[in-house]
Amino acid sequence: MEQSLQEALNYIGGISSIIPEGAKVLIKPNIVRYQSPPDTTDPAIVKALINLIKQRNPSVIWVAEGSGEGNTIENFMALGYSEIAAMSGVELVDLNYGDLVEVSIPGGGYVFDSFMFNKKVVEADVFISLACMKTHSMAVVTLGMKNLVGISAGSVYGVANSANHWRLHEVAAEKGDTYLGGVITDLNSARRIDLTIIDGRVAMEGQGPHDGEPVNLGLIIVGKDPVATDTVASTIMGFDARKIPTLALAAQKGLGTNKLDEIEVKGRTVKEVFHPFAPAQGHNSFLLISDVQLLMYRWRELLFLPAIAFGSLTVLIFVLARRTQKHTVQGLRMNNVTRQEMVIDSKPELTKKDETVVLFSEISSKHLEEEIKDKTSKFKHHLRQIEETLIRLEEASKLLNSREISHNIYEVLTADLAKQLISSVETLVNMREDLELIRSRAMIEKSKNIETKDMTSTISNSPSTQEIEDLRYVRGYKDIVESQLWSSAGQPVYSSTFDKWTALISQIDSALSSLPIDKELKIIEKFILLTKDNATYETDSERAGKTIFSCKQRLKALSEKWDSIRRTKIEQLANLENEAEIIKDQIKELETRFFVGEISQQIFEYENNKLQSKIKNVENQISEIKSSLNEMDTVIFRSADLLKEVF
Description:
- The chain is an alpha/beta fold.
- It has helices at 2-10, 43-53, 72-78, 82-85, 119-123, 154-157, 166-174, 181-190, 226-236, 245-253, 270-273, 291-302, 307-321, 362-401, 407-448, 465-471, 478-482, 497-513, 517-534, 541-595, 601-646, and strands at residues 24-28, 60-65, 90-94, 100-104, 114-118, 126-136, 140-142, 195-205, 213-223, 330-334, 337-341, 456-458, 492-494.
- Helix 1 (2-10) crosses helix 2 and helix 15 packs antiparallel against helix 19 (517-534).
- The protein is globular.
- The termini are far apart.
C-alpha cells in the first residue's frame, strides 16, 4: 500500500513537493458514520500516507473529521483507527467541536459567505483530502471536494450525531442549490485543498454514498488540483465533469479545471481504467454515455453468445432501450435466482390483453415504502431534538459548576429544557413502537413472498411485435443482461417482491440502529434524573408520568438485550485475555532465546517489537470491552435505582 501510494505521488513531484519540513499536516478522511469501507476511508491507506508524511518530519499530523452521524472519535475507533491514534505525532480530531474560527470566502460564495471551522483546519500548513470514490444520491459523485462537507463544524451546522450537517442542506435548498455544488465549492474556496487522494481500490456505484454496490477498480488517484483530480475520477466513473454542478461551479470560481483535455494524466490512461458506474437514482443525465452505450459496455463481460446471436440481440435491445428514459428496470439477485420486477410508469396502450408483465404487490410495497420513509425521517428528527437538548443541559451544568450562572438561572434553564425533553422522549418512544410494528408487518409480507415462481412473465419461443413493444416499458439495462433475459426463449422473469420487502426491512433496521442501546440508556437515565430533580411540572406531570412508565418498559427490554450482549462481550474478553497470555509467553520465550544466544539482537528487536505491538493492541481491546461493560452496567443500575425513586 505504502509503496503504491508513494509511486502515485512521485508522478506529481513526490511528497517533498507538497509538505515542507516541520509542517502541520491535516488529513481529512471520509468518516460520515460507522460503516466499513468503501463507505468510509480505509485506515490502511491513512496509515500508509502518515508513514510517507513522516519522511518530512512534520510538527504534527492531524487526522480530522466531523462525522455526520454518531460521535466522530467513536467512529474512528470502531473503524480501526486506534492503531493510527497510537502513532507518535498523530492526533485524531473531531472537527464538529473545539476552538472555532470564522473563515470568510474571498469574493463571497454561491451559498455561504463564511464558515465556522475548527481552528486546526485553518492552522494546518498542508490540507489533504483523502476521499472515497463513490456515487452520491444528492451530489452525483462524492470525491475529494465533496469530502470537505465534514470540515464544517457540526456544533454550528447541525447537532451531535445528526446526519449530513443539516444546516448546509437547509441553506442550499433555500438558495436552489439542488446538487450541493454551491455549498461544496464554497467550502473548497474557504479552505483550499493542497493534495487530493482518491481511494478507488474498492469504490461504490448506484445509490451512494451509503447504500450502493462495491466496484473493484484497484485505483489510487492523486493530484494537486482538486477540481482536475475529481474530474479525472468522475470521467473514469462514466460521468461528464462539465455537467456535474460541483465541478462546473468550482471551475467558474477558478479553483481548477474540469476540462479533461487540459489535464495531464500520468500513470495509467483514463481509457485503460474507464469503468462507467451505475448512477444514483435520477442522475442518468450526468453520464458521459447513453443508457444503450452503457448497456453495450456491460455486455462485453456478461454475455457469452456467438457473434451472430450477439448481433441480433443488439438490435432487440436497441428497440427496448428507445424508451428507457421514461421506463426503467430494477433487478436484484437472490439465492442464485434472478428476480426481476416489472414496473410501469405510464400505462401503455395495448392492442391485446397484457399478459407479458405481472405487477406483484406494487401498490402495497410503494405505500409501505412511503410510510417507512416518513416514519424513519421523523424518528431521526426527534432523536436529533433529544440529543440537542441533552447538549444544552450539559452546557448549562458546566456554566453552573463554573459559577458563570446562578442556581436560580440554572433551574429556569433546566425546567424549560426538561419540558422539551418530556415531549421529545415521549414522541421517540411512540415512533420506535410504530417502526417496530411496521417492521413486523413487513416481515409478514416478506414471509408470504418467499416463493413467487408462479408470479412470472415469460418470453415466448417467437416473441411477437406486441410482446417486444410491451417489454419496451421495462425500466433499466444492467440487470436485463445479468438475468440473461435475452439469451434463451422462455426465460422466466421473477417478481422482486421478496427482495422489496427485504430492502424495506433493512431501511427500518437502519433507522433503529441510529439509536443503539448505550445511547438510548443514557437518554432514559438523563430523562429520569431530570424528572426527579425538577419533581416534574404541574402542566406536564401527567405526561411525564406516562413517559416514565414507557421508559420503565424500555429499560426492562434494554436490560434483557444487554444481558445477551454482555454474555457475548464477556466471552470476547475471555478469548482476548487468553490471547494476551499466549503473547506474553511468546515474549518470554523470545527473551530466553536471545539471552542464550540462539537469536541475534536484530532479530530479537524485530520480533519483540511485533509482539509488543500485538499485545498492546489486544490490551487496548480488553480495556475497551471492560470499560464498555462497566459503563453500561452502571447506567442500567443507576437508571433502575432512579426509577424506584420517581415511579
